[in-house]
Structure formats: C-alpha cells, structure tokens
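Q: Here's a chain of 221 amino acids. Please give me its 3D structure as tokens.
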Amino acid sequence: MQIDIKQYKSIVFDCDGVVLDSNAVKTEAYFRTAKNLGASDADAQALVDYHVQLGGISRYHKFDYYLREILQQPATRQAIQILLDEFARELEVGLLDCEVAAGLLALREATPTAHWMILSGGDQQEIRTLFAKRNLHALFDGGLFGSPDNKDTVLVREKASGNLQLPALFIGDSKYDYVAATGAGLDFIFLSDWTEVPDWQAYCEIHKIKVLANIAQLMNE
C-alpha cells in the first residue's frame, strides 16, 4: 500500500519511538524509579515488563498496577505521585539528549497544510516542556497531548472540536497506537526501528498494517 502523505488534513504522531528515540530511556527510567524507592530487582523488572507489554499506555495506569498487583500495596494518590515524581527526575536528562527522528523537518515541509499533533502516553506537561526546550513545539500546530488523558479520549475530543480533521494519519510504534487510531477512523503506519513491541512483525502481518522503518522512509513512499 502506497501512502500519499499530502492527502491528509491531520497527521498524529506518537512521541516515544516515533519522533524521539526515547523508548529505551523510559524503560530504564521505570527500572531505576522502582529501585530508587526500595524495590527488589524482580519487582523492578516486573514493572518494566508490564510497561513494555502496554506500550503507549499512561504511566499513571502502570504505577497503579505496580502498587496493587506487583507490590500488593494500596495504590493511593500519594503513593502514585511519589513514583511519578521520581520517574520524572529519572527521565529529564535522558529525554533532552535522545535522538530526534531523521526526516522530520523534511516531512513538515512536504505537508505544509496538514495539522500536526503529538499524542503520547507520556505526561502532557512534560512533553510540552521537553518539546519547547528542544525547539520542536512549533512543528506541531495541532497541539501536544499526553496523559493523564488516554489516546482514545484525546482523539474523540480533538475530532469533536474540529482540531483533528479527516482524512488523518496516525504514525505510531505500539499495538495501542494502532487500536486507538483505527478506532477513531484514522489511517495508521507502524514504525519499526525503535519499537519495543517484541512480536510487532506477526502483529502487523495479522492486521495488515503498513510498516515502515522510520519517518525518513516515509519521505520515499
């Protein structure tokens, strides 16, 4: 399936593993966060495994699960906030240094009339601050969105407001990205270079998902 990128009125990007090579940064931050707060190696690894399994899902949900199901502790608002704060500290330096996808500026130039949006499982304010510091925010005139709202909620809201117009394309690297995109009526492309989905090849084949290695390859379609 060939992609005519210029047909789209809106292009929605996941952040980690799509625009930024940050999946490994976040995975390591989950492990260090748990260890810093006294977890065993086994419990910290269990959190990492759950994070990888649920790529694209909010950290709020993952820490709630970690407390209730892994540590067998009450998932109080205070306990979750302690984890969130530690996680943010662990992430800050890594996200400022990770690689930006090659071809991003060229794609922006090739789609001057499309509204660009970031739709991430990461913290919304963290993403907005990060993109401002890295001088990327101006590329995304449709806005930068993240948790605590999930991707399904944001897509419904932004479509209703007219900010997200069809035909639209979602570019992601997780199963949840695909489910959210198709559920909202968007076309979808899976990027494989930086994904952490272990069975992505079989999953994409079963669901007949268009796969590209990276954003730069999209420019050659």
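Q: Can you summarize the key feature?
A: The two ends are 10 Å apart (CA to CA).
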